[in-house]
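Attaching the record inline, Q. Sequence:
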Amino acid sequence: MGLFKFDLNSIEDYVSSHLKLFILSVAGLLVIVCIIAVSIFFIAVRGAEQVLVPDVRGKELTEALIDLQVKELYPRIQLRYSESSQERGLVLEQEPRPGTIVKAGRRVRLVISQGVMISKVENYIGRNIDEVRMDLQTLHVISGGIQFLALKEPLMYDFSPEPPGTILAQKPEQGTDISGPVTLEFVVSKGLQNTTITIPNLVGLETEQALELIGSTGINFRFSLRELRENERGDRVVFQNPTGNSYAPQGTEVTLVVTIPNDLGSSEIYGLFSYNIPSNPYPLPVRLEALLPQGERIRLMDVRYPGGEFTVPFRLPVGSALILYMLNREIYRETVSRR
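Structure, as predicted:
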């Protein structure tokens, strides 16, 4: 029976040689994996082929789409009104801009004209000029800031049996085609010339009653305040000029004096609201409201006023807000306070 001889050095040499081979194999594999990963990364970064964005502004939509398709670009379409009916169906804007280098497959935003919002001039004769102004402002807003119709200023006025502010004539005429921005010329009524009105009798009325009667008759007016005298009552009209039930030309200013009451609470103020309203060719709707500290809103005066110093007596708690409106738009606000 032979003897088995165990050679430790031989085993160590064997293991060492194979371990080196294994390490080299793993290192080589890692290098290959890294190369593949880097290649994939650069391929991903490079992505699709780069192309030059064509200029499609001013072209028909169909032609613009073909130009984009050739470059393997895709449209994102938006519609917008423009200033000319001749632009209908044409590309107004594009993003990215022409000449920009992008990857194939990119979306290009195209703004396409829908033409003008309105195609013909409507009939404005018989309508109130203030209502027409508001309509044109609304049209300006919803059309994205494009002014299809504008008023020629200053307006032309003429005396007429029609109510003041009524449109008597227009140019261009009704039905005129709109191919671009149009300027409207109106002749507006100033009312009858030298019209005589009856001045109502306001002396003895409480201020609130007087303001209501003035609002219904539409007379021109100016208030002032003074302290109470013997046998007088506060917050009442004690003087007017011209006198009540007299006749005067339309637009005559009626001067009114109101007494200051002596029963005011510690947190109340009796005062005279005053604001200079620009003069107008005819009276415009004016309204004065009070917003009380607790949030309640009350109407003090509602009248058509031709312009000038607008004066209204008031009795309100301290901290109330006086708000003046013209044509239903706030034009002034002040807070009631002790001066």
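The longest helix spans residues 8-46. The chain has a mean pLDDT of 86.

More tomorrow.
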